[in-house]
Each structure stands twice: as structure tokens, then as C-alpha cells.
Amino acid sequence: MKDYRRVMLGSGSKYADECYANNFIGLDYGINQDLSNYLPENWREFNDKYIPVYLESHPDKTKIAAGLACGNLWVVCKGLNQGDLVLCPDGQQNYYVGEIDSDYWYKPDGILPHRRSVKWYPVIIESNAMSEDLRKSVGASGAVVALGTYAEEIEELIGGDKPPTIISSDDTIEEPSEFALEKHLEHFLVQNWQHTPLGKEYDIYEDEGELVGQQYPSDTGPIDILAISKDKKTLLVVELKKGRASDHVVGQVQRYMGFVKHELAEPDQKVQGIIIALEDDIRIRRALSVTNDINFYRYQVHFELFKEF
Known about the structure:
Order of helices and strands: EHEHHEEEEHEHHHEEEEEEHEHE
Structural class: alpha+beta
Largest sheet: 7 strands, mixed
Distance between the termini: 52 Å
Number of helices: 9
CATH class of the largest domain: Alpha Beta
Strand content: 25-35%
Number of domains: 2
CATH architecture of the largest domain: Roll
Radius of gyration: 20 Å
Low-confidence stretches: 161-180
Mean pLDDT: 88
Number of strands: 15
Helix content: 25-40%
Shape: globular
CATH topology of the largest domain: ph1033 like fold
């Protein structure tokens, strides 16, 4: 299945034009060595080896920032396959679109030395041509952002054939038809975080002022929101479900929490979880009754009509 990613080419897209002119994408992160002989199929193995390397050259960074950097590096160097599609902002609200057409290669004396060759399409996508949801996703923080949810729209924007309709395989959602609406909830919560009860105790995780806690990658799937308490003592995993959440989501959150505990948390930090959904039921109540570190929140949607004349 074709993968779709937004890839940032340098801070503020400062290398976008050079990459476009020379048909490549790349990342840096200060890891100055050829990775050709160590790109395992599992990104976790890559992170285990290179997080210490990253932290050695970036002693001021946290394990969370290191995990994100190394995860992004693995995606670009190994996770993307030939034929996968990348959207790269040009810094002026437009996006170059290209197809990966080589394996990883290393250029030690150039910008963004960890590279993949790209065949750029003869089309540039303007951000105002995108749906609001796609525009928000391509504008998200971080060097690499997954865009598979928007495959059909992206293919339409570049004039290609429509791929098969995307169907949710997430068994924690009882109504797959509601899957697409989950993104609305996530964007709304992120944008209004400081006005929620959670925002009084936690901040969505940032690195150098850049929001990196939204869709944070783990080895069992992306964490909707990764937050940290204002006293830095607790990491919070937030999972969002549109509609009624099933009891399967409890295990999902526990897996995310296990990843955070073992891979990201410092020795003096604890890990908590929160599930946010429109409704609960007896099954999820029973599951949560024997879990001390996961809380459940319901959200409400308020809608009114006002007669004007």
C-alpha cells in the first residue's frame, strides 16, 4: 500500500528549493555517519542504537525529543518505500509533490545528508486547495507527518486516480463510519488545550517551542496526544475516540503507556493515561475499575440555531 508523508526540508523549509532542484529529500539531526549498514526493518531497533548517539551530540535534549528525531530519521531512510508519495512545503504555502525512487544514500558534505532520491511531479499544491483537515495536518509540527488518511484527497489534488476507499481497521472504534471525525476532535482539543481541565495541569509536549506531542509515534501506533505535567513529573497519554469507546481502548492505552514508561520516561517520572470519548458503557467501566492510572473523560458537542429574521 502506498504511503503518504509530509516531509519538512530544513527549518522553515529553507532547503526546499535546493532539494526540488536536485531531486532529493533528506534529514540531518546531527548524526554524522552513513546509516546504510544499519537500517533494520524495525524502527525500534534503530532507535535503541541511535538515541544514545543523538543524545551524545544533543545533551540538552530529552529522551522524548531524541525518540522523535530518530524515528523520523528511520522513516525517511528506511520506512518509506520506492513509489511512496511525499509532500514538501516550499515555505510559501505551497507543496512540492514527489515520488520516492531510490533507496537511502548518504552525502556527508551536503545539506540534509541522509537522503532519498525523488521524482518530483509537475504539479505544486497550494494550501488553499486543500480541505481544512488536510491543511491542518500538513501544517503540523515535526519533520515528518503521516498523511495516509488523506490519500484519496491527495491523489485528486495531483490529478491521479482515486485509490480504494480507506476503511478503519481500528477495533477500538465501534462505529467505523465515525473514524474520519476523530481528527476534528483531535485538532479542536489541541487548539483549545489551555481552556480545558487538562490544560490546567498538563502541557502538550514541546521541543524548542515546537509542538511534538500530537500523533507521537510509538511501536504500537501513534499516540494521539503526549503531554507532560507542569511540574515535569508525569507524562500523560491521551487517546481520543469519536462516539462510544469500547473496552478494547483500555488495552490500547496501556500499550502506549508501557512504551512511554520504558522508552521515554525519566527514572523520576510516572505515566498516566486518559481516554476521551462521547459515551462510555458498562464494559469500559468494568475495565477501568481495576485500572488505577487511566481516567475517562466524556466530551459534549454544543450546537444551537438562532433565528435572525
